[in-house]
Design goal:
Blueprint: E1 30-33, E2 37-44, E3 52-56, E4 62-65, E5 70-72, E6 81-86
Parallel strand pairs: 2-4
Antiparallel strand pairs: 1-2, 2-6, 3-4, 3-5, 5-6
Length: 92
């Protein structure tokens, strides 16, 4: 599913659908999108399905498939970099 959301934070270049094998931004970079969405730049530990939920390690910013407060709107393969959307409140 292609993301129709787009960036509103004053950062140049993020494409929420893009997956790469080399980092284009610092891991952990957070930006805001339209519709009041929050996005974080991560590296996938393994495969994460499109529309799949995931968790993000807040020290390494590595995303892992499974129950978590983030969603990968575009699929990841192991080692890829890209953006995940926060879809649930993170309670500490």
């Amino acid at each position: 599913m292609a993301v129709t959301d787009h960036i509103i934070t004053p950062t140049v270049g993020p494409d929420f659908n893009r997956r790469t094998t080399e980092a284009e931004f610092a891991l952990g970079t957070v930006v805001m999108g339209t519709k009041n969405t929050g996005w974080i730049y991560v590296q996938a530990a393994g495969t994460i399905a499109a529309a799949g939920t995931c968790s993000v390690n807040t020290g390494t910013f590595v995303a892992t498939a499974g129950a978590g407060p983030f969603t990968a709107d575009t699929a990841f393969t192991a080692g890829q970099y890209g953006w995940v959307r926060q879809t649930a409140q993170v309670l500490a």
